[in-house]
């Protein structure tokens, strides 16, 4: 087997790249764009799933120490539930939204009357005085 030097010099390689998309028809270009976008969406979905897994591992690593922490965990789970396909019922979605609004209202630091640990301070119940002249 011999190597033809003259023949190889007629087809020299160049550093210039060829844009293949320009040489394809319109349908092939659209199909290629669709495949590229689909691959991007899949990559973004995988990245989101990894970040959610990391958040959930951190969020649920320990038991909640206060009611606001417990409410934050419940809020996260309810938001994930309503975003899923399992929660298509509009009535159920409105109920979950109402519970989330309650959590937001009750977790508001300006509204809290109790200590910083989330426990509410209990006020002693007012005693009713018996009317005058009655026994007791």
Could you walk me through the main structural features you see in this protein, from its secondary elements to its overall organization?
0% of the residues are buried. This protein is an all-alpha fold. It has helices at 5-10, 20-23, 26-59, 67-83, 90-107. It is built from five helices and no strands. The radius of gyration is 33 Å and the shape is elongated. Mean pLDDT is 76; it is low at 121-125. The termini are far apart.
Provide tags for this entry.
136 residues, mainly alpha
Shape assignment: elongated
SSE series: HHHHH
Largest sheet: none
Return residue spans where pLDDT drops below 50 for at least 5 consecutive residues: 121-125
Derived structural class: mainly alpha
What is the terminal-to-terminal distance? 124 Å
**Proportion in β-strands:** under 5%
Count of alpha and pi helical runs: 5
Radius of gyration: 33 Å
What is the average of the pLDDT values? 76
The helicity comes to 55-70%
**Number of β-strand runs:** 0
Structure at a glance:
The chain has helices at residues 5-10, 20-23, 26-59, 67-83, 90-107.
Task: Give me the secondary-structure topology.
Blueprint: H1 5-10, H2 20-23, H3 26-59, H4 67-83, H5 90-107
Helix pairs in contact: 4-5
């Amino acid at each position: 087997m011999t190597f033809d030097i003259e023949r190889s010099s007629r087809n020299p390689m160049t550093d210039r790249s060829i844009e293949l998309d320009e040489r394809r028809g319109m349908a092939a270009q659209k199909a290629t764009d669709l495949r590229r976008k689909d691959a991007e969406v899949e990559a973004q979905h995988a990245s989101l799933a990894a970040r959610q897994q990391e958040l959930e591992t951190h969020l649920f690593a320990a038991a909640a120490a206060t009611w606001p922490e417990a409410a934050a965990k419940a809020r996260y789970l309810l938001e994930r539930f309503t975003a899923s396909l399992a929660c298509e019922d509009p009535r159920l979605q409105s109920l979950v939204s109402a519970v989330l609004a309650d959590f937001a209202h009750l977790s508001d630091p300006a509204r809290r009357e109790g200590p910083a640990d989330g426990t509410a301070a209990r006020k002693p119940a007012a005693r009713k005085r018996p009317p005058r002249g009655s026994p007791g």
